[in-house]
Amino acid sequence: MYRYKNEPVDVVIVGAGLAGLSAAVKVKEHGFSFKVLEASDRAGGKVYTEFSEDGKRFYEKGAQFVNKDMTEIISLIEGAGMELKDTRLADESIVINEKNKKAIKFSITENQELLNDYELEEHSRLSTVLSESIEGKWEQKMLKSYIAAETTVSSDYINAKAARKMISRITTRESELKYQASGPLNNVITHLTGQLGDAIHYHEPVISIDKIEETYQIKTEHGNTFEGRALILAIPPTVANRIDMPESLQNHFREALDSFLDGSVIKLTFLYDEDFWRHHKVGGKEKKVFGVIYVGNEGVNVMDSSTGEDENRLTMFIGGDKAKDLVKVPPQVRENFALDRLIDVFGEEAEGYQDIEESIWVDSPYTGGGYGAMVHTEGNEDADDFLGVPFEHAVFASTELAPQFPHFMEGAIRSGKQSAERLIEAMEK
C-alpha cells in the first residue's frame, strides 16, 4: 500500500459521499488546503449507479429521487449536464395495500401533524405513539410498515420526539419522488470530484484520530497518517462512532454519537416490457397504481420508478427488521420473496420481468446499513444539532444532521455545506 508523505493541511475531511464532497468544495472556495479520506474505492457513498452488462441501461443502487424544492441536488444534476425527468406519478395514481387493495392516502405532512398533536414524553417509542394515537389496527400497521420502509428502521426503535423533529425539516410542497435525473447520478459525483483535483485519497478507512497540540493526526487502516488543524467527519454517526477519538472529542460528542441506530435496507428493481400496474383492477375499476405498502410484511413497499417513456420499472424497498432477516438468505430466496409480493398484488404478469437489480446496504461498514440512521428511543433527540456544531475545530456532517431534507441527497449536501461554513467561521476567529 502506498505511503503518503505527511503534508499537514488546514482541513481533513473523512468521507467522500455527498456531504464530504460538498464540504470539500466549500472549504476549497474559502482558500483552505484540504484532503478527503475515503474508505472505499469510489466516491459517492449512498449515491451509486450500476450499469447493465450490455451497458444499455443503468440502475441507481442507492439514492434516486428528487423534487424541485431540493435546490442543491438539482443544481448539481444540471451542473453535471443532466436534467430532470418525471417519475410516472400521475395525479390519479394511487398507493394501495397489498391485501384488500384499499387506496392509501397519507403524506409526510400528515405524519408531522399527527406527532405535533400528540403530547410526547422523553424517550417515547414511535410505535407506541402510533398505536395510541391512530384508530384502527390496520391503519396502525400500515403506517408502521411505511415508516420501516422509508426510514429503514422499525418504529419500535425510533425516538418519537426525534422523528417529529426530523419530519419537520422535510419542507416540501410536492412529492419527494416526483423527479429523477435524466442520466446516472454517478455523473453528479464525477462533477464534484472533478472540482477537487487529487485531494481525494481512496482506500483509506480511518481507524483512529489523535490530537497533538493543535493538530489532528488521522490514522488509517493501511498505516498512513494525515494531519490537519481542523476536521470534518462527513460519515454517518453510526460509522463515526467506531473510530477511536481523542478524549476531549469523546467526552464532548459521545452521547450524541451513541444516540443513533443504523438502518437496514435492500433495494430491488424489476424491469418489465409492459407497465401492467398502471392498468390494474382496484374495486372493480381500472386504476393506475403508483405504489404498494405491504402491511403483512412490515418495512416492504413498492413504487413505480419508471421515467417518461423510458423502460417500465418497479422498485421494491425492504427496510428494517425484514431486511436484516433477508440478508441472511441466498439471493434467489430474496428474489423469490420479492417476486411473491408482486404476484400477491398484480398476479402472474409480475413474473415476466426482463431484468432485476439488487442492492444490499445492510451492515455496510462505511455508509451505514440504511439510507439514514435514526435516533433510538434512549437517544438524545437533539443529537443531530449537537454534532453539527464545531468543537475544537472538529465537526460532523451527514444527511441525518441536515438542517433541511434529512435522509435525502439534498440533506447530505446541505449538511456538508453548513458544517464546512461553521468550521471555517470557527477557524477564522
TrEMBL record:
Extent of the signal sequence: none
Keywords (A to Z) from UniProt: Oxidoreductase
Q: Which InterPro entries match?
A: Amino_oxidase (IPR002937), FAD/NAD-bd_sf (IPR036188), Flavin_amine_oxidase (IPR001613), Flavin_MAO (IPR050703)
Which GO MF terms does the UniProt record name? Answer: oxidoreductase activity
Q: Where does substrate bind?
A: 317
* Necessary cofactors: FAD
Query: Which PANTHER family does the UniProt entry name for this protein?
Result: AMINE OXIDASE, AMINE OXIDASE [FLAVIN-CONTAINING] B
Name the family: Belongs to the flavin monoamine oxidase family.
**Protein name per UniProt:** Monoamine oxidase
The species is Alkalibacterium thalassium
